[in-house]
Queue: 2 jobs
Job 1
Amino acid sequence: DGGITQSPKYLFRKEGQNVTLSCEQNLNHDAMYWYRQDPGQGLRLIYYSQIVNDFQKGDIAEGYSVSREKKESFPLTVTSAQKNPTAFYLCASGIRGRNYGYTFGSGTRLTVV
Amino acid sequence: AQTVTQSQPEMSVQEAETVTLSCTYDTSESDYYLFWYKQPPSRQMILVIRQEAYKQQNATENRFSVNFQKAAKSFSLKISDSQLGDAAMYFCALINAGNNRKLIWGLGTSLAVNP
């Protein structure tokens, strides 16, 4: 079955460490997105990519980095520059040029310890 | 700027009853799409229903239907015959059909279903 796989489901990071969240899709979608979800704040866009080797900053990109070397993969790195990284992170994908809505992964809960 | 507003942070409904969740939006675009997403306790975001702005007919998906009032910029979700599995956060979202397409999200409504 096609879908989006996010891993790991839970991730713990020490202060000052970089961590990478994985997002893989086998839906043949061109566009991929990373969102951060905090209680009471809804979903906020971190980065998005509409084609391979190209990506754009979203509304809260500071302290995060991404790459899009393959169509199927869009990993998110949370760097030590992100001051408050504890949150729930959702990856999504969609068909470029079509407005059918996004397909979401099951998310990664990142906690700084 | 585009905005999506969900004015009901929390709602509840009795099992088998009907509930309506409100959503208003603002956009200067004429071509756009509206969505309702459901996020159950598992936190997986699931698309519930989609509405094209150029269509006057309200979208329906089984027990889920919308009341789309374009002039009023209102997009409410009606859940009929509510089931325990409908308990979740519900998010309203808007996307413009331009080149720089990003979903604009509301803050969500938490729906509780009482047995």
Job 2
Amino acid sequence: EPEVTQTPSHQVTQMGQEVILRCVPISNHLYFYWYRQILGQKVEFLVSFYNNEISEKSEIFDDQFSVERPDGSNFTLKIRSTKLEDSAMYFCASGSDRTDTQYFGPGTRLTVL
Amino acid sequence: QKEVEQNSGPLSVPEGAIASLNCTYSDRGSQSFFWYRQYSGKSPELIMFIYSNGDKEDGRFTAQLNKASQYVSLLIRDSQPSDSATYLCAVIWASKIIFGSGTRLSIRP
């Protein structure tokens, strides 16, 4: 069964450094998403992406964040200058329609020291 | 502000019994509703989706939707220890999922 994959599973970085989190969505899906979950808190929407552009973003997704689909398979989230409060699980998700089911990847645990 | 509300629990249910999980949502225009299961340290895993008023059954799981009351529920029949997890109610609004904070379910042997 096709699934969303994410790399790395765990990323440790120093405050102020740039990180890139990678995702390979399910191949025939057209809608891509990033969510984050701070330890012990709810899953929060960051950004949705369709047709090579951002379709919606939350107030969390400020100028430090960017997304890109550099080729036909990868979908990336870049954090330009990480802060301590960026430490969280980051989940990528994909779906075939904007109101349809979203399937989640296993997540990347980001630790900012 | 779009909200999805759930009782955080923990909800403790004996093995073999029915677990009942509830959720309310604030946006009357919401169309798609989901239940995800999340084990500790893992990603959300889709359990059920429901779009229309009424009940939808899939194996041991039944989702119930009442749009007039803005209420979604999930029933788990014949609860198993492996059902112990956090259950996330989710609503799609403008192409993004709004999650509730989740209900922690514990199935006791």
